[in-house]
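Morning run. Coffee first, then this:
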Amino acid sequence: MPSYLTPGVYVEEVASSSATLSAGATAVAAFVGFTAKAPTDDPSDPDGLKPRMVTNWTQFETLYGGFVEGAMLPLSVYGYFNNGGSMAYIVRIQNTTPSEDSGQLALTSGDRSLGPAVEFTTVGAGSNVTVDVSPEPEAADAEDDAPPTFEVVVSDSAGEPETYSGVTLGGISATLNGTSTKVTVETKIDVDQLTADLQTLPTGSFAIQPAPAIPIEVAGKAFNGSESARTGISGLTIADDVTMVMVPDLITAATKEDGSVDLAMWKSVQLALINHCEGQANRMAVLDAPPGMSPQQIKEWRSDTAMYDSAYAALYYPWIEVDNPAGTNGNTSINVPPSGHLAGVWARTDETRGVWKAPANEIVRGALNVATDITKAEQGMLNPIGINCIRPFGTQGIRVWGARTLSSNTDWTYINVRRLFNMIETSIMNGTQYAVFEPNDQKLWEGLKRTVGSFLRGLWRDGALFGASADQAFFVKCDAETNPPDSIDQGKVIVEVGIAPVKPAEFVIFRVAQLKDESA
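And here it is:
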């Protein structure tokens, strides 16, 4: 206590008698798959395989490149942000190895119609080789027909830059070849046919693109990864805030040479993803159904082959058709796994309605069509076994028309119920850390009750909990009954919490009867 010696008014700040809980982020996605390139800005992760957070598409492009053939992850990430997502971890799986071939760079002369004038080729594979070209001032005693000269600087990440002055278009090969340890140069045109004013090189900084990487076969265990190495699905253990995980490039790795899908790998990787989510207990696996299956076939696969039973997983069918930015030869659209787009729908629903609202009856932005058109009767056999369908509804757009988990436990039938509990449990765990090592007495018990009770009362007022009153919606118990002497001696304080979550109106039924006129 401070001592007061001078008369006057003093103000003292005192700690609140109870802490305040706040709900954490509920829509943090994680994508595991292939990318166009690897981020190179982290020396501890030269291959760019560790989880990295991105918050928009531009940031993703900067770190991982854009759309590329043979990779579904960029399309899924784009669909995620387009549908309302705002935070995503990217876990790159290595599916290529650097080529030992040389990289090449072609530059034109002043007469561009002649095509490439000179071609730079790296010595070996090269390492981030860059060619900088800048014009030099014209010498005072230069002849009128003398070609312009340039300074050429060749640099890489392995050593000191090489600087060449007084370089001309006609003499660049002779100047650099035999001297440079980084590049060789070949002149591709007859320079003597050009007038002096056209014997120029473009100015600027030009990166020599390496030879295309060599694809390598990716086994299912590569997706599983390693927790200690921070790779694959297991590497996401360090990302405590992740709430939904997708593996859109499972199709890329599981497609055989004959075009068929390795369903054994499909199941193995998805089981690893489900096990990860169950182990973390704060996130859900957003699963893609195998492509090319009819409703009957997907029913049989779900029931007889996959046989998943988990409240921490949701399955979507069918695939969706979207624009193909990387398409060639008229391939303007492509069928993609829907998980990334649906994760965006989850995020959008969380933002506009709350995590307790089922992420269904929502438009899938960017979807041009569905791979398989499903009838009401066909969905009638898929919905009960937890296959969430995506269906076109004419002028109402293409909508997700299911909100079930893959659990056989009716307490966890709906996605929003599982995610609401995940959010509440995480919020309580993070918001009550202050209680650790506090005196285990009635004061602590009452403080925990107030903290948790106030948080749940706020959720009830927001519509997350079912009940006409707070007492009907939840209870919090922490007293001598939940904390007997034996429990206290073991260093435990036990708080019992019960909540009544709201569940979606999956079947809206109107009973209509004919009203007879009995006045006659």
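DSSP finds 13 helices and 23 strands in the chain. Good start to the day.
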